[in-house]
Amino acid sequence: MSGAKVISVMNWKGGVGKTTMTHHLGTGLHMLTKEERLEYLGSEKMPRILFVDNDAQCNLSISCLHVEKYEDLVYKQNIPTIYDLYKLFICNESPVVDMHNYIIKNQVRMDNRRIFMGMDLLPAHQELVYLDMNIAMNSRASFQSGLISKEIYKYQYLNDILEPVCSDYDYIFIDCPPNLGYTTLNALYASEYCLIPTGLDHLSSYGIASLLKEIDRLNTEFATAVPDHPMIEVVGIVANNVEENREAPKRSQKLIRERLQDSYHELMFEPYLTRGDGIPNASEQGYPVYADRSANALKQGDLLLGILREFLDRI
User: Fold this and answer.
1) Which terminal residue of the chain has fewer beta carbons within 10 Å of its beta carbon, N or C?
2) Does 149 reside within a domain?
3) Predicted confidence band at 293 (pLDDT cuts at 50, 70, 90)?
4) Closest CA to 123 of 96, 85, 169
5) 290 Rama sector, left if φ>0, alpha if ψ -120 to 50, beta otherwise
6) How large is the C-alpha radius of gyration of the chain?
7) Each residue of 265-289: b (16+ CB within 10 Å) or e?
8) 171: helix, coil or strand?
9) Cβ proximity of 145 and 225 under 8 Å
10) Tens digit of pLDDT for each residue in 186-204?
11) pLDDT of residue 149
């Protein structure tokens, strides 16, 4: 796709901060100073952001809108969601779609009173839980050789969905489910970049090597099936839910972080995100932690902006 930088935030482990990172990287772009925007983005203008909630848990949609507004729009007013788009593209090879009917414009909350202008949302629906099965069951006739070549369309739905609006945005952030099924694979196919949040515990960090190996395999498979397909670049690995002792990770987490740095070298981000109640409290209100003025929230907000700056340096 041409236009926006498209970033998938993923890990096949749950509870590692995928939604937190997605929400705060996107909203953090509007918290940068004019000088920072000029330095990192090449322009003082506020960047145009699209959040894509690609997870049946719908946490990104709720974080952006607040749970009451999300439930009113999706379950009472029955506005269309990303799941409706997937169904259209699964059932029709080239559907005619007006994406403006699916994207919620200028309603991502900054705090209890204000919204972010130029920041939009493609919301999720809980029925996304059935998407992998729907994609797996769908078949098209093909005379190409090789499994991935014959079934490459199963990875292209989200790319085709986003293509018409890609030039409308500067950044598109995709929040992925905690697995590597078709839903996540569609996000990866549509993305230039991939960010991997992780906890500093053995279970959260255990699968990173396998995940990186799978991304390498997918790059090869996608390039074989679609020769001009861009490579997915892993921007890095970000530690989340870090417990500190004297302004440094506690010993057990420090050892895991050092092991990750030894294994993945420059892929490991230097800044990390601490555990605290600032983000959960802000998320419950349906806005990012930047709007909360409690001590813990201010610290987490500063750390997230540090992660954002390193992210922008890397891409």
Assistant:
1) C
2) yes
3) confident
4) 85
5) alpha
6) 19
7) eebbbebbbbbbebbeebbeebbbb
8) strand
9) no
10) 999 999 999 999 999 887 7
11) 57
Unique residue bearing structure tokens 């906890």 = 199
- Structural domain boundaries enclosing 156: 5-232
Mean pLDDT on 141-156? 67
Sheet with 5-9, side-by-side order of all strands? 119-122, 49-53, 171-175, 5-9, 193-199, 233-240
pTM of the model: 0.94
Residue 217 CA to residue 233 CA, distance in Å, equals 13
Residue pair 263/210 in contact (Cβ under 8 Å)? The answer is no
**pLDDT for res 246:** 84
- Pairing mode, strands 5-9 and 193-199: parallel
112 by Cβ neighbours in 10 Å (0-12 / 13-18 / 19+) ranks as exposed
**Domain-embedded: residue 311:** no
Backbone φ and ψ of 230, nearest 5°: -70, 150
Kindly report the backbone phi and psi dihedral angles of residue 308, in degrees, each rounded to the nearest multiple of 5, phi listed first: -60, -45
Residue 57 covered by a domain: yes
Q: Residue 220: give its domain's CATH number.
A: 3.40.50.300
Number of domains in the chain: 1
Residue 206: pLDDT band (50, 70, 90) is: confident
Kindly tell me if the per-residue pLDDT of 250 is higher than 90.
yes
Model pLDDT, residue 143: 44
Report H helices in the chain: 18-28, 34-41, 59-65, 67-71, 82-91, 131-137, 147-150, 157-162, 182-190, 202-205, 208-225, 251-264, 278-285, 295-314
